[in-house]
Design goal:
Layout: E1 6-10, H1 17-31, E2 35-41, E3 54-59, H2 76-111, E4 115-118, H3 126-135, E5 140-143, H4 155-162, H5 165-169, E6 174-177, H6 180-189, E7 198-200, H7 218-225, E8 233-238, H8 247-256, E9 263-268, H9 277-286, E10 293-296, H10 302-311, E11 314-317, H11 326-333, E12 338-341, E13 356-359, H12 364-375, H13 378-393, H14 398-409
Parallel strand pairs: 1-2, 1-4, 2-3, 4-5, 5-6, 6-7, 8-9, 8-11, 9-10, 11-12, 12-13
Helix pairs in contact: 1-14, 2-3, 7-10, 8-12, 11-13
């Protein structure tokens, strides 16, 4: 251990896609010969999985995923109360998060690892702690999942209070991006950050899901829950529900499919604070599709992901903006063909015509055409799914991700 570089990976989102990513990255870096410590919150979702790295999870944060987001409010008073309650919980969670950052910073200054690796910087106040760590000569890096808010942010107020993002990103010795399109956009937005500090890595697969035990009746149980017959073809949307995901475009596209295709649309995922579920339900009713569109708006337990993917004939990512997608890698892991919007970093992950189709963004007609092509040609869908699984094991392997990151870290 003494001859190994010590990497502290900071991922306080202890439940959801970011911690799934962090778990696999830490595993890969440990396999590559680093001493790795993951700092996360006490309700660490991956605790029962095998670990070849240390986990420090004695930080307490309130849950990110609340069942109240899945509820629909009827009546003005109920709607107002729900919003007030949600705002209060957000403020309280923010207080806990700030206190946790003080503890994380104290720990890092005491341990002094060779490298401190951050995930997505979600809040402007975190820049204060990054500056403090940099002043104490710690080497800071980041896997830059997102560098701009896609769902709304008061840029002017944030900059006045906390300073610019550019000044913060200049503190990092290395920044990793999952698509060249994102890296180039970052370089354009933040010219003060040295180009040599930016690096491209694949978005690793979701192979950890294959380690989870599955009930033999899981798929049948889900079919019963969703009222799906064996003859029903399933178009699946899986992931967080937010405006940037283009759910409205998918609903419109589904309405353009011929009823003879025998398909139902299954929309599964946790609704963020930016999505109006009532509006989605109303649009489904207007389209006359209430009997053919199924919503499951909640945080999905990791044990349910595999059987949900098993149901799918095609998985759709109709995004209106995107850097990359962890949910896309879930479909690849389970060998499912995809239809994704030709936007952001998605074209660098989807081999059009080989493991799925790229569709014009915010274009329900084109989206419907690409979906229908897969529904009408099961042999093509199967071949594309097999290629998706191959990409998951090769192009998006964690060994490749760790190899690139390790090469960069050896130079810092």
């Amino acid at each position: 251990m003494k001859n190994k570089k010590h990497i502290c990976v900071i991922e306080l989102n202890s439940v959801g896609g970011l911690i799934h990513y962090a778990y696999q990255l830490c595993t890969a870096l440990a396999n590559a010969g680093f001493e790795v410590t993951l700092l996360t919150a006490s309700d660490y979702e991956m605790a029962n999985l095998p670990h070849n790295f240390r986990v420090k999870k004695d930080f307490y944060l309130m849950k990110n995923f609340s069942s109240s987001n899945s509820e629909t409010s009827k009546g003005l008073l109920k709607s107002v109360w729900r919003r007030v309650k949600r705002l209060g919980l957000r403020i309280l969670r923010g207080v806990y998060l700030i206190l946790t950052w003080f503890r994380v910073t104290a720990y890092l200054l005491r341990v002094k690892p060779e490298i401190v690796q951050f995930s997505r910087i979600q809040f402007q106040f975190e820049a204060y702690f990054i500056r403090r760590l940099k002043k104490n000569n710690l080497v800071l890096t980041q896997v830059c999942h997102e560098f701009e808010a896609r769902e709304g942010k008061d840029e002017v107020l944030s900059t006045i209070i906390f300073g610019s993002d550019e000044a913060m990103y200049a503190k990092f010795s290395a920044l990793f991006f999952h698509a060249e399109e994102n890296r180039q956009k970052f370089i354009t937005h933040f010219p003060a950050v040295p180009v040599k500090a930016t690096h491209l890595i694949p978005h690793g697969n979701q192979g950890w899901l294959l380690q989870l035990p599955q009930s033999p009746s899981a798929e049948a149980d889900l079919r019963q829950k969703y009222a799906l017959t064996e003859q029903d073809k399933v178009i699946l949307f899986f992931g967080l529900l937010s405006p940037s995901k283009g759910i409205e475009d998918l609903l419109e596209a589904f309405g353009l499919l011929p009823q003879t295709c025998g398909a139902k649309l299954l929309v599964v995922g946790y609704p963020t604070k930016y999505i109006d579920m009532n509006a989605l339900y109303e649009r489904v009713t207007e389209l006359g599709l209430s009997e053919r569109i199924i919503f499951d708006p909640r945080y999905i337990d990791v044990t349910e992901i595999a059987p949900i993917m098993t149901l799918a004939d095609v998985v759709v990512y109709p995004y209106r903006s995107s850097t990359q997608s962890g949910a896309l890698q879930v479909a690849y892991t389970f060998g499912k063909p995809v239809v994704a919007a030709n936007i952001g970093g998605l074209p660098e992950a989807v081999e059009d015509g080989k493991n799925g189709f790229l569709a014009a963004p915010q274009n329900p007609q084109d989206l419907a055409q690409k979906i229908n092509a897969l529904l009408q040609d099961p042999k093509l869908a199967q071949a594309m799914g097999e290629h998706a699984r191959l990409l998951s094991r090769t192009k998006f392997s964690w060994e490749k991700v760790a190899e690139i990151i390790s090469g960069v870290y050896e130079t810092l």
